[in-house]
Amino acid sequence: MRPNLRTESLGRSFLMLDECSSTNDVATRLAEEGAPHGFTIIAKEQTLGRGRRGTTWFSPKGGIWMTVILRPPPDFKCPDSLPLLGALGIARAVQTTLSIRVLVRWPNDVMFQNLKFAGVLVETKFTGNALDFVVLGLGVNVNFRSTLINTEIGHVTSLRDISGSEINRSRLISSILEEIENFYERLCFGETSIILERMRENDWSSGRVAVVHFDKGKVTGTFGGYETLTSVRILDEHGRLRLIETGAVSSVEYCGL
Ligand code: BTN
Predict the structure, then answer these.
(1) For the whole prediction, is pTM greater than 0.90?
(2) How far is the CA of 236 from the centre of ligand 1 (A)?
(3) How many Å apart are CA 211 and CA 90, to the nearest integer?
(4) What residues does ligand 1 touch, defined as CB less than 6 Å away?
(5) Mutate to test the pocket of ligand 1, among 57, 109, 158 (most ligand atoms within 8 A of CB)
(6) Closest CA to 136 of 183, 69, 58
(7) Whose C-alpha in 91, 105, 118, 207 is 20 to 30 A from the C-alpha of 168?
(8) How far is the centre of ligand 1, averaged over its atoms, from the C-alpha of 141 (Å)?
(9) Nearest 5°: CA angle at 249, between 248 and 250?
(10) Could you give the C-alpha distances from 1 to 14, 119, 169, 210, in angstroms and in order?
(11) Mutate to test the pocket of ligand 1, among 121, 149, 180 (most ligand atoms within 8 A of CB)
């Protein structure tokens, strides 16, 4: 990976494992022990890979299973935008390295047409109100057949299936880290308009009907685009425009998928 990598901090120091339970768990432990900003854990295989809402994330050899430790500055305001930022980084890296048009499905998936091939799991550690660190977990189905994935999950694919050939994973990893670092630095400097512009260019969700679930209650409506990096517009069943904060959402079901 190193010869390809053009980042300042993300992936500059890393741990490569043959196998682990979950790279997010290893990252959390190392962050608690003081691992620096940008430290990256990559596993060839995960035995207990996790997705959002406690789901299992199938992680065989051939995928990219990687977690980046972020130590945001004290005035950092947008942890809720990080899943989207991670998904956007993956989408742009796939587009530049493989010339495959892929899009981001709010709040944290990367899609080829109506098939998911990558997802992001962000976990945070706070002390009181202060954000100590973030672990940004990125999972990309790369060099294995998506038929290996439990079909109950449905609507999934891999880059190998899309392109029909073996993908150079180290090149893709470097590109993902570069894209995410670029967006993350802009976020830290408050330059959100360029990120929003890229989100809109790579937006899978607009015009789709979705059921958005909260801890209490739900809203059904048509996705009307990004208001900010942490909020979206939904036109509900009664024709009312609702502004929804991503951080308040527990899950999203897209209709017809
Ligand atoms: C999702 O779409 O539900 C999120 C999937 C995130 C999977 C990645 S793989 C690397 C990291 N380690 C984990 O256990 N999960 C994330």
Answers:
(1) yes
(2) 30
(3) 25
(4) 22-24, 46, 49-52, 55, 57, 59, 65-67, 108-109, 119-121, 137-139
(5) 57
(6) 69
(7) 105
(8) 11
(9) 120
(10) 10, 21, 9, 39
(11) 121
- Give the contacts of 113 (CB within 8 A, at least 6 positions apart): none
Strand order in the sheet with 218-228: 241-245, 231-236, 218-228, 209-214, 249-254
Atom of ligand 1 minimally distant from the CA of 108: 2
What separation in Å is there between the alpha carbon of 240 and the centre of ligand 1?
34
